[in-house]
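call fold(seq) -> tokens
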Amino acid sequence: MPIATVNPATGETLKNFDPLGPEEIERRLALAVTAFGDHRTRGFGDRAELLTRAAELLEQDQHDIARTMTTEMGKPIKAAVAEAAKCAKAMRWYAEHAEQLLADEHPAPADVKDSGASRVTVRYRPLGVVLAVMPWNFPLWQVVRFAAPALMAGNVGLLKHASNVPQTALYLEDLFLRAGYPQGCFQTLLVGSGAVEAILRDRRVAAATLTGSEPAGRSVAAIAGDEVKKTVLELGGSDPFVVMPSADLEKAAGTAVTARVQNNGQSCIAAKRFIVHEQVYDDFCERFTAGMRALTLGDPMQESTDIGPLSSEQGRADLEELVEDALRRGATARCGARRPEKWDRGWYYEPTVLTDVTEEMRIHHEEAFGPVATVYRVGTLDEAVARANDTPFGLSSNVWTRDEEEVRRFARDMEAGGVFFNGMTASHPALPFGGVKRSGYGRELSGHGIREFCSITTLWHGPESREAAQ
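ret:
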């Protein structure tokens, strides 16, 4: 894939970029190592000042960078502005909390007395240069939720962003430089996917984080495993949205629409499979379908637009194949299932609701990355749990019930990194985020996320150390 800004609303190529050559990659790797040697020794107060300044600049820039994101990957402008604001919030959260989250731990003397130590300290130390391989769908947020904790922990970052969002990628490097970070603390590498292996294998790169497709995750995990380097992977999702008889159907159906079409339906944590108890199935389907039909599809630069284009022509073609396969095998389209007639330019696809989905259909097993929902009818709680877990993915999940026994059961048995009751799955700086099964491993955000790229170091002091200290 060329490194280029291609407007998905028109299909027009606006700007091309040359990938970095080997000499420039080498220069940037060397610069990152030098920067780490300095940045790792900064106190938390100094790091917090830098990150807070970056948050201030981002808040000033939010409308400009929102337009860049919308131009490059098609998200509605109001969602792009909200994404920029969320990134600034995460920066401030880590600037405020990182020192506490990474504070030294001191095991109780009674617990370690038989180790022969006079005292023991557990310390979180930064790993070094971390490579981030990031996707286009949340081109600012996905990067910031790595960069903010990594920089506060004392690491430095190398960003290999998706090739269709190069201007957003370059903005991020410039943002941290303007905030006062020294050269090399955070660098954007405009390179194709073929360059990732050599960079990851370089001895100066300590670890990697990837958000993206399962094939990309497999590749990075295999390379890092061969080099014995730490990785965090956040991969695909096919999140269930379960609706039980006690649910508030009006709220559940309204939230279901938002949960399915956020970011034009191109979100790993978007609800994709709607599993509804037969007692409320017909009512929910009617409400949900009406809500999907009512969405405004159009120019993503307009505030009134709910649904913009998909990010690429190939992405739309992949989604169409899944829908067409389902329809051939007996699925029913309650709405959508086609390109809009009005928008003959760009990569638009109508919000779609499919029912009568069976296990023979590809869409039952594969992630639909676009505004297409599948709805299933179930008769019991056991069937709902089984259907929810009948996927190779396990990123997050939604459950709508006001029955406390059902809450306990879903909390125990859902195979996912998160279970959100009576609300929509969302990421937040204070909450750990990540999946199970083929949705990846490791966690981002919260204290768990900032510690992923730290070395947990035990500092053991013998009796002589205590005497020397006295």
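The chain has 16 helices and 17 strands.
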